[in-house]
Write a structure and sequence with these properties.
The complex is a heterodimer of chains A (497) and B (261).
Chain A: H1 18-26, H2 29-51, H3 56-72, H4 74-87, E1 91-95, H5 98-111, E2 116-119, H6 123-127, H7 130-136, E3 140-143, H8 146-153, H9 170-180, H10 191-208, E4 211-214, E5 218-220, E6 225-230, H11 234-240, E7 244-250, E8 254-255, H12 261-272, E9 280-285, E10 296-302, H13 306-310, H14 326-330, H15 332-337, H16 348-359, H17 376-380, H18 387-403, H19 406-410, H20 412-425, H21 427-440, E11 445-446, E12 449-450, H22 458-461, H23 474-483
Helix pairs in contact in A: 3-12, 9-10, 16-18, 20-21
Chain B: E1 2-5, H1 9-14, H2 16-28, E2 32-34, H3 44-48, H4 52-66, E3 71-74, H5 77-93, H6 97-106, E4 110-112, H7 113-120, E5 133-137, H8 140-145, H9 151-157, E6 163-165, H10 180-183, H11 185-201, E7 206-209, H12 212-224, E8 230-233, H13 234-239, H14 248-260
Parallel strand pairs in B: 1-2, 1-3, 3-4, 5-6, 5-7, 7-8
Helix pairs in contact in B: 4-5, 5-6, 7-9, 11-12
InterPro entries (chain B): Cys_rich_dom
Domain Cysteine-rich (chain B): 3-83, 134-218
Pfam family, one (chain B): CCG
Chain lengths: 497, 261
């Protein structure tokens, strides 16, 4: 089963390869049905609301350009952000890696004598494994986003950036709530009833827990403002009710000015939930007057491999991502395997280019290959990340890494690729190989097709027949035609069975 | 016009009928065609699998073979997009300034067949006759890298006798993706089975495309399932006329379909 088979995250060591994890997911028919239905629905809605915008392409270009410029001057803008946050009464903490960030957050929670925190759904805190780190310090973290709560109660991993429980049906959620939440014996699987049950559970937490932890959608260098967008309003409860607010922000979430928000607040909702505007958009600029919000605000700035990604001219595009998940919803691979197959908090096409860069290609070398390169992700990306380009760039790194070792050089793939490269570089060798193939295939051709191939090519013939090398290749036919008088019409020739 | 054909290694070896159809079609339209015998492979398989250093000699070889061509026309949207989109990147990656200049000069003269006919020659009616029910699979590379738009459909609509039916979910990948189909065989199969269902829903006799690589994948599945639907390259349909079919791939495919049924 796919869900139990998912290894824990995040990982800096080789996880299960995508193709193996995908095989597990593909066998789960319920998952495939849920995924197919959900992604098709969101995709259709997105197209509709995007088509309404006459300046969509200009917005995309602006979104890309702002992020690009910010990343090129990241040092400058980060220092500006630190100064701005301090000016409005907040405190900035710098975290080089996950361990650093977790220690800082746990320290802040403990300094208030707290044993519980409420959380706003955040991929960044998932990436650093914050909940687990807090648990080790004896601190309980309660997720307040409905889908994230479902994932937490089920002790699972999210399978979608925006809709973490996309792979779960209503019936499954009802069973989960009955098992884990008090007073839900008679619960129905009506979405309203399910949401009400979660609300009852969460309300108690909002009113009693003293510390809230959030991620950050956009951090504005100019004003020190933190922006959080969400659909349910539970995040806003976290921002306003607890005494202490700690926001963990990946350094790439920075934007220079307040005005830049205009671009992203149009791009993000249409791309992610296919809404014209976000239901809840909260801005947090330092401290509010006493009694009107948290008494303390901490901003943890997280690197965790991001500056390393920044050093790669092609790969750095991945840092422009605003986590809208449009690429997931259109990806034909993601649609069928679900998010768990990617073994990453960042699944789908963006995960396939971000994760290998964050944890190293040697630890996630199968991810750049988890794509048929159909290019749909690039077409919908609101900030124009050329995902196929980065995938190919990373594939190159995977191959180079493999070729560094003796065993890697001996791998069947490397040997055959090197051989083919030699064959293709001279026409004489190439024509000889065609003849050789025609002779060799005599053993496997049956009724004009090949229905079984050996070794790693067996996957192909599991469901597909293969067309054999033609009795006369095009170049042989052409040579013959050049020799003889050019016929008016080419001779009849069987090319397909 | 003097057209140099880039038939691609794949079509040369496995689907020579497509190349012959192109020859028949272009000569019928009054052009002279040449097939530079030195051509081999565009290097896409190597490049896309991560063997980018290994692809470099193939890129150089392609440029050498076609350097002096007036126009290069190919029956593969995927290989043409390799030349148009990726060659410049390869030259830049390996810091080869001469190659970069040559690619910049050559790439704009390399065309996919349907774009060449519609955009360059301004021809839509090529005088073809094909009395069959046909659905058209727009490949991802032709759609999202080459942006061929509706060029193939415009050509097909002018074919006499044809019954052209739209393929449902036409913008979805068939799951071939080169080595993807081997490396991620199970996912590729899942994508293929959905594509085949869409093809069968059209009740078409032929599934056409501007690229034989996707057709090898879809056709291989259609054949294994004994659906009786035949894959066919756009060039082969356009090569057919009322007075005696040049047939090449098409007649053969029909004969095979009858044999299989």
């Amino acid at each position: 089963m796919s869900r139990e088979g998912v290894p824990p995250l995040p990982t800096k060591r080789p996880a299960m390869a995508f193709e193996d994890a995908a095989r597990l997911s593909l066998g789960d028919t319920q998952l495939r049905f849920n995924m197919g239905k959900a992604t098709t629905t969101i995709r259709g809605k997105r197209t509709k609301v995007v088509d309404e915008m006459p300046d969509w392409e200009a917005l995309r270009e602006a979104g890309r350009a702002i992020k690009d410029r910010t990343l090129r001057h990241l040092d400058k803008y980060l220092i500006q952000l630190e100064e701005s946050v301090a000016r409005v009464g907040g405190k900035v903490h710098w975290a080089a890696d996950a361990e650093d960030a977790n220690r800082i957050v746990a320290g802040l929670v403990k300094s208030h004598g707290a044993r519980e925190v409420v959380k706003i759904k955040s991929l960044t805190t998932d990436e650093i494994g914050l909940n687990e780190a807090l648990a080790r310090e004896g601190i309980a973290a309660y997720e307040t986003d409905l889908a994230e709560l479902i994932i937490q109660l089920a002790d699972e991993r999210s399978s979608h950036i925006l809709v973490p429980a996309i792979h779960k049906s209503r019936a499954e959620i009802r069973e989960l709530f009955r098992r884990t939440l008090e007073g839900t014996e008679g619960l129905s699987d009506d979405p309203k009833a399910l949401a009400a049950a979660a609300r009852t559970h969460l309300r108690k937490k909002f009113l009693t827990v003293p510390v809230a932890i959030s991620g950050v959608n956009f951090g504005v260098a100019e004003t020190g403002t933190v922006c959080i967008v969400e659909s349910e309003g539970n995040g806003r409860m976290c921002l306003t009710l607890p005494k202490v607010l700690i926001s963990v922000m990946g350094v790439e979430k920075l934007i220079p000015t307040w005005r830049d928000l205009e671009v992203y607040l149009q791009l993000l909702p249409r791309s992610s939930t296919a809404e014209r505007m976000n239901p809840y958009t909260s801005f947090w600029t330092g401290l509010a007057p006493p009694g009107d919000g948290p008494d303390e605000f901490h901003l943890v700035l997280l690197d965790d491999g991001r500056t390393k990604v920044l050093a790669d001219r092609i790969g750095r595009q991945a840092l422009q991502c605003i986590r809208c998940s449009a690429c997931l919803n259109v990806c034909p691979v993601y649609q069928r395997t679900g998010g768990h197959a990617y073994n990453s908090v960042y699944p789908g096409p963006i995960g396939a280019i971000l994760t290998p860069q964050l944890v190293g290609v040697e630890n996630a070398g199968s991810l750049p290959y988890a794509s048929s390169l159909c290019g749909y992700c690039y077409e919908v990306c609101p900030v124009k990340i050329n995902i196929p380009e980065v995938l190919l760039h990373l594939r190159g790194q995977v191959v180079r890494k493999k070729q560094e070792s003796f065993l890697g050089r001996l791998s069947p793939e490397n040997v055959s690729m090197q051989g083919l490269a030699k064959v293709f570089s001279t026409p004489r060798r190439y024509a000889a190989m065609q003849k050789l193939g025609r002779l060799g295939q005599k053993l496997v051709v049956k009724n004009g097709v090949i229905d079984r191939l050996p070794g790693s090519l067996g996957g192909w013939t599991a469901v597909r027949d293969v067309y054999p090398v033609a009795q006369q290749t095009f170049r042989e036919w052409w040579a013959e035609r050049e020799r003889t008088v050019k016929p008016k019409l080419p001779p009849r020739e069987e090319t397909r069975p | 016009m003097h057209v140099s054909l880039f038939i691609t290694c794949f079509n040369d070896t496995l689907f020579p009928g497509t190349g012959k159809a192109m020859v028949a079609l272009l000569e019928r339209l009054g052009h002279t065609v040449a097939f530079p015998m030195g051509q081999t492979c565009c290097g896409q398989m190597h490049y896309n699998s991560g063997y980018q250093r290994e692809a470099l000699p193939m890129v150089r070889h392609f440029v050498e073979v076609f350097r002096d061509a007036e126009v290069v026309v190919s029956p593969s949207a995927s290989c043409v997009s390799m030349v148009q989109e990726v060659y410049a990147r390869v030259a830049e990656e390996f810091g080869d300034e001469t190659l970069r200049r040559e690619v910049a000069a050559l790439a704009p003269r390399v065309f996919e067949l349907s774009m060449f006919l519609v955009n360059e020659l301004g021809v839509e009616d090529v005088g073809a006759y094909f009395p069959h029910r046909v659905t058209f699979h727009t490949t991802c590379h032709s759609m999202r890298m080459l942006h061929i738009g509706d060029a193939p459909q415009r050509l097909l609509r002018k074919v006499r006798g044809i019954d052209l039916v739209e393929l449902p979910k036409a913008d979805e990948c068939c799951g071939f993706g080169g080595t993807f189909a081997v490396k991620n065989a199970d996912t590729s199969i899942a994508m293929l089975s959905d594509k085949i269902r869409c093809v069968l829903d059209t009740r078409a006799e032929y599934c056409a495309s501007a690229d034989n690589s996707c057709l090898m994948h879809i056709g291989g599945g259609l054949h294994r399932q004994r659906t009786g639907v035949n894959p066919i390259h756009l060039a082969e349909i356009l090569a057919c006329t009322e007075e005696g079919m040049p047939a090449v791939g098409v007649a053969a495919a029909t004969a095979a379909a009858e044999r299989n049924s």
